[in-house]
User: Fold this.
Amino acid sequence: MKNIAIFASGNGSNFQAIVDAIEGGKLHANLKLLVCDKPGAFVIERAKKADVPVYSFNPKQFASKTAFEEAIYEQLKKCDVDYIVLAGYMRLIGAFLLEKYPGRIINIHPSLLPAFPGKDAIAQAVSAGVKVTGVTIHFVDEGMDTGPIIAQRAVEIADGETEEEVAEKIHAIEHVFYPETLENLLNEKCWKVLES
Assistant:
């Protein structure tokens, strides 16, 4: 089984969905570490409850992005991490970690990329008046939500739906879709699809 680290910055609902999938036997992976750049984030409480080790740091205490990514990498090495899984991590991954984990950093984004990259993707979709948005799982590169797409799932936006209502529908899909996709990816069930 592959060893994974989850990077998260906030509430951690996708972190929890992954923990639940592992505990329920739906995702065959070892969750070795939570990396969090917000020392007060609720995801840390979730990790403690699930007995997942936490590396929490304040980026402002480092001289540069490379400096804190080097510190993160030391923790990842100790835990023998194979893949990095981003779950609401609100920072771009820098060159240092991209070089250490080529093709092994995965992100989930609440839109059908390339539409609505970056922050507030759900608000962007609602204000643009689109009828369909969705969820994208992709490999991370140096850009903002620009890496190769692994899988996507569409979500319809009904007339008059608020941003909160659309967010609720997207989160419900994310919590099933992310663990399923990780299971396929980490256990090589979808490489044939990606390579064809």
